[in-house]
Amino acid sequence: MTQPKKILLVDDDADLLELLSIRLTSSGYDTILADSAETAMNHLDISRPHLVISDMQMSGLDGMALFEHIHRTVPTLPVIILTAFGTIPDAVAAVQRGIFGYLTKPYDPKILLNQIERAIGLLPATENPTSCATLRASWRKTIITQSAIMEDLLTKVDRVAQGDASVLLSGESGVGKELFARAIHQASKRCDQPFITINCAAIPEQLLESELFGHTKGAFTGAIRDHKGLFQLAEGGSLFLDEIGDMPLLLQVKLLHALQERVIRPVGSTQSIPIDVRIISATHRDLKSEIEAGNFREDLYYRLFVVGLTIPSLAQRREDIPLLANHFLRVFAEKHQKDINGFAPEAISFLLAFSWPGNIRQLMNVVEQSVVMSAIPLISYELVRDAMHRDETQITSFEEARKQFERDYLVRLLKITAGNVTQAAKLAKRNRTEFYKLLQRHQLDYTLYKPQREKA
Known about the structure:
Rossmann fold, Two-component system, NtrC family, response regulator GlrR, two-component regulatory system, transcription, globular, ATP-binding, alpha/beta, transcription regulation
């Protein structure tokens, strides 16, 4: 029997939220209710619905902020926005940036159900905008270039995508390695299957093994239920291992075994699980130097480096700078509702001459800052220069980086312990009172992580 599709509904109006849930439940869908964008983010930390339907205007974070969070973290998850008349321009701009669709209130239930069917792929593939055929045909559109060196690379991407070999992407920070990993996935025969990403440098070593391979109930203190790892979640699709050069040596051994035998063994289990996953990895490190230093296994390197692609820095593709800058300008002018037409010639010259140590990520940040500060339809040289200076001095603060790490760490502890605060506090080596305060600081609701039967 086919499991009903899950839809996450987000609205700060309890009556409207309940009414929408009743309508969709009667149509055969499972609904998860969230009364704020923050609560919705909590739910997305725990599980993945097939679709998110969100109101545009809410107290706290609005529907656009929620969409941007989803677009960064789960870009394949479709989002439908419900909007009042006054926010239609925002919704139109959002569709251009990746939202699946929007409906104005009061919405027609039949039209909503039709959009839902299209969004989660219940209509025939020819009618489904996110079908595999569409993704395979459009994967190049996400990579903006007029550079010969980039065209050569895209030809290689197309060729590599047709097979199933492991791919290692290398290049400086900020060149867009995840964008290329996603392009390989979308151009491949696996494009309608999951694309799962994990940053090996961002997760504490004691949690990384469980995140990758999963664990069984009782595998360690606090593991009160079975937990599927990312290999299992990516079954049939692609797993992108970002910053693979930072993976601890002990885990490198287990990853090597998984790649050689095509099986994984969750922490605490005696049973092996077969896997069908394509591995795409990336690093900004020189792995050969890491091998010589004893920090990276040579046998794992050759397993990952069946095909190697090097993504050029922005300085190596300077002809793309005006193209990219104008693309980002259009995106951010829409986002911030600014009437801006382009750059002054002196500003473009300045962009072309800069060294771009942060690559495309830095260029995008500079353009957005310029758009925000501009009071006229043309971005001037002075605005770009000042934005460049701010970008170099406003590196993410230690405090902001600590907050993000802390939230991610708490989410993973709650997942592992299924919302058991006592066990999570023990794993974190903190007392319960302090741990509760940490959860409150990050607006994390531990009850959402408990098994369904315990919530009833």
